[in-house]
Amino acid sequence: MIIAIDGPAGSGKSTVAKIVAGKLHFRYIDTGSMYRAVAWKSLLKNVDLSDEETVAEIARNVKIDLVPEEGGQSVFVDGENATNQLKQETISRAAAVVAAQPMIRKIMTKKQRELGNREDVVMDGRDIGTVVFPNAEKKFFLDAEPKERGRRRFDELKTKNQEADVDLVTIVEQVKQRDHEDRTRKIAPLRQADDAISIDTTHLDISQVVDQIMKEIGRVLHR
Ligand code: C5P
C-alpha cells in the first residue's frame, strides 16, 4: 500500500508523514532527503550543479539509507550520517536545482518506485501522487500560507542550531522562492493530483492533520 503526501516546504508533510507511518507500521520515505543527498554529495565533490551528466552519475551511485529512529529519521549517505548537513538552507537550494534536471528525476523516481514496491510506505515529496505513484491508494496534498510555512522552517532551523544566523523575513522569502521553482519547473512540478485530498494546515496543529489523514486512510483499510 502506498500513501502519498505531497506539498510545499513547511506544509508539515514530513512531520505528519512520519507519525502516520509509525501508526500504520509502514515505512516512511522522505524523498526530499534523497534529492538533498544528491545535492550534498555533488557539492562535496565540487561538481557544478548544472553539469547534469556528472550529477546524474552521482545520483546513480549514491547509497542513501533512511533509518527510522525515535522521533525522527537519520539519513546516511554512502555510510555517513548526514542528517544535520542535509537540513541546511544551502542544501535546500541545491536540492531544488538538481531536482529540476530530467536525468536526475528519472534516476530518483526509479529508486523511489523500487522502495515503494518492496513494502507498505508513506512517501512524501512533491510529485509522489502525480508521477512516482499515480496509482497510490491514498493521496494527500498539504499546504499552508507562505508566512506560516516560513515560520515553521525558521523554528526548525533555530531548534537545530540556536546560533544559526537566520532571520524570519529571509527564510520566508527563501521558502517562497523554492516553491516557485518547484511549481514552475518543466518536469514533475509540485502540483496537487486530481484525486488527492487537500488539507490547509495553516491553522491546524500536527495532531489535527494526523487525525484527518488517519480517518481517510481508515476508509481504505476497512473497505
Ligand atoms: O521536501 P524537501 O524540502 O526536503 O525537498 C527539497 C527539495 O527537493 C524540494 O524543494 C524540491 O525541489 C526537491 N524535491 C522534488 N521532488 C520530491 C521531493 C523533493 O523535486 N519528490
Task: Please state how the strands of the largest beta sheet are arranged side by side.
Answer: 2-6-1-7-8
The CATH superfamily title: P-loop containing nucleotide triphosphate hydrolases
What class would the helix/strand composition place it in?
A: alpha/beta
CATH topology (level 3) name: Rossmann fold
The low-pLDDT segments are none
Sketch the topology as an H/E string, one letter per element: EHEHHEEEHHHEHEHHEH
How does this structure look, described?
By secondary structure, this protein is an alpha/beta fold. The chain has one domain (2-214): P-loop containing nucleotide triphosphate hydrolases (Rossmann fold), CATH 3.40.50. It has 10 helices and 8 strands. The strands form 2 sheets. It has a 5-stranded parallel beta sheet with strand order 2-6-1-7-8, sandwiched between helices. Strands 3-4-5 form a 3-stranded antiparallel beta sheet. The longest helix has 17 residues, at 102-118. The model has no long low-confidence stretch (mean pLDDT 94). Bound molecules: cytidine-5'-monophosphate (C5P). The site of cytidine-5'-monophosphate has 16 residues, from helix 2, helix 5 and helix 9.
Keywords:
10 helices, Rossmann fold, alpha/beta, three-stranded antiparallel β-sheet, 223 residues, single chain
Quick rundown:
This protein is of the alpha/beta class and 223 residues long. It has ten helices and eight strands.
Secondary structure topology:
Elements: E1 2-6, H1 13-24, E2 27-30, H2 31-44, H3 52-61, E3 64-69, E4 72-77, E5 80-81, H4 83-86, H5 89-98, H6 102-118, E6 121-125, H7 128-132, E7 138-143, H8 146-160, H9 168-184, E8 197-200, H10 206-221
Parallel strand pairs: 1-6, 1-7, 2-6, 7-8
Antiparallel strand pairs: 3-4, 4-5
Helix pairs in contact: 1-10, 2-3, 2-5, 3-6, 8-9
Bound molecules: cytidine-5'-monophosphate (C5P).
